[in-house]
């Protein structure tokens, strides 16, 4: 059963049931029929408009780069075969933080909100993409800053309520180059960008976002993880806010004006989970 809030979000009006029309349309049609005038089904005006869809999701397999040892490598086993069992099937053994994935509100705290409890209307959001690729090309430890956000707003206006704000650092291009995505130095220390604490604070305390995301392995830059201070995570996650990591193909969506759909796996009491992310514009 869809809630009125979800129906309003998707169809542009309130209603109480899933399907081609909402309750208000059904009542209007019934009234017209009672008066002897057939009423054609009225198509709802969708909130999500656009003729183009971008897949913002990495394909993951056993070779997908993960931040070991804190993230376990995936193990996909093709255990059933047509020749032997008469059908094909894979067994998936995956860390919740595999591939393009959501970090849920309960990732760093015990208890709700678990990922399966995130309201569905928070998984459909305006998409704001803030690009810092030029700076990252010169400094792999760079972060998205509050100044970057304010510069973005000076061009596109204030970040809308309920937005998913994403850092695009160009890191996605490294995914198929062995070693380049985690980017460890000679001492084995990883180097990749993430959200600065000041940027995370601005988004959470002064804006009304539902989530923040990165095109890197973590919301936090690797330098924060080295000192065991995942501050960007701690600021963003909670109060039903979530993060999205390892986002792909952000160069295929506009900076502003797209809608994002986060198709999150729904397992009970999840702390995180793989997701399929679409940008519609």
Automatic annotation (TrEMBL):
Top-level taxonomic group: Bacteria
InterPro entries, sorted: KFase/CYL, KFase_sf
Protein name: Cyclase
Annotated organism of origin: Streptomyces cirratus
């Amino acid at each position: 059963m869809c809630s009125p809030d979800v129906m309003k979000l998707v169809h542009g009006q309130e209603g109480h049931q899933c399907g081609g029309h909402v309750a208000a349309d059904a009542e209007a049609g019934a009234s017209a029929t009672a008066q002897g005038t057939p009423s054609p089904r009225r198509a709802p005006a969708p909130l999500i408009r656009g003729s183009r869809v971008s897949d913002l999701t990495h394909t993951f397999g056993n070779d997908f780069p993960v931040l070991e040892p804190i993230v376990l490598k995936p193990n996909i086993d093709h255990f059933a075969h047509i020749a032997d069992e008469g059908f094909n099937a894979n067994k998936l053994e995956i860390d919740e933080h595999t591939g393009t994935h959501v970090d849920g509100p309960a990732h760093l705290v015990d208890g709700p909100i678990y990922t399966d409890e995130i309201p569905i209307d928070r998984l459909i959001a305006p998409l704001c993409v803030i690009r810092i690729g030029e700076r990252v090309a010169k400094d792999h430890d760079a972060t998205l800053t509050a100044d970057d956000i304010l510069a973005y707003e000076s061009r596109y206006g204030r970040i809308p309520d309920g937005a998913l704000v994403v850092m695009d650092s160009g890191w996605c291009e490294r995914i198929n180059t062995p070693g380049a995505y985690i980017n460890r130095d000679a001492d084995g220390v990883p180097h990749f960008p993430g959200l600065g604490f000041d940027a995370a604070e601005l988004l959470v305390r002064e804006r009304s976002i539902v989530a923040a995301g990165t095109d890197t392995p973590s919301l936090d830059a690797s330098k924060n993880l080295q000192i065991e201070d995942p501050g960007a995570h701690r600021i963003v996650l909670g109060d039903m806010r979530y993060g999205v990591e390892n986002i792909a193909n952000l160069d295929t969506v506009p900076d502003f004006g797209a809608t994002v759909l986060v198709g999150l796996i729904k397992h009970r009491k999840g702390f995180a989970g793989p997701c399929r992310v679409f940008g519609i514009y």
